[in-house]
Every structure is written in structure tokens, then in C-alpha cells.
Write the C-alpha cells for this entry.
Amino acid sequence: MMLVVQTQISENYGAHDWDGEGQCPQYWKMKGGREFKVTGIPLNIDFKQVIDLLNLEDSNDYYREWVISWSVESDNYLSWFEESQMDYDGAITSPEPTISYRDLVDTGVVLGYN
């Protein structure tokens, strides 16, 4: 089984002309998101703890990313982006970020931010 985590990204357009003095202007726009896969996921664990280990959320004056949903999928799951590559190119040349559950727990390697 695979844990699939979706994020949402927004960008602060008000920060583009900000000189760094005083309050940063706020003009946030949604910018899509990303999808992350954790393979080999045991079903008897707390999925929220696994999502927290991925460290996918980030926020500053310019950029925000946060988790909006997650699901448990079969091992052959393809994201919309991966499916479109198969449909148009016949191969996946830009796969979604993927890590095995064992590597995540054993090595502490994360897909998001540190």
C-alpha cells in the first residue's frame, strides 16, 4: 500500500516589491500544489505521524505550502500528472516525489523541508 499526500501552495504577490522594511504587503494567490508518495506503508500506523515526518509544510512572507489531503492507494497508483505523461509520452519522465516508509523511518530522509 501507498500513502499519497497532496499539498496546496500559495504565493504572496505583495512581497515582490517589498523592500523588507515594516510589514510585508499581503496579496496571496493560490498556485496549485504537489503530491508525495510513501510506499510500503503499514496499515496499522498513525498516518498523521507519517505525514508529520515528511515535513511538507512551509510558510514565510513569500510562500506557503500545507497539506490539504491524504489517501491510502494501491501500489500501482499513478497521479494525474503521471497518468498524463503516460497518455502523451508513453513513459513517466517526471515522477512524483516518492520515498519508502522504511527509508523515511530508518534514515530520516524527508521529501519536504528541513
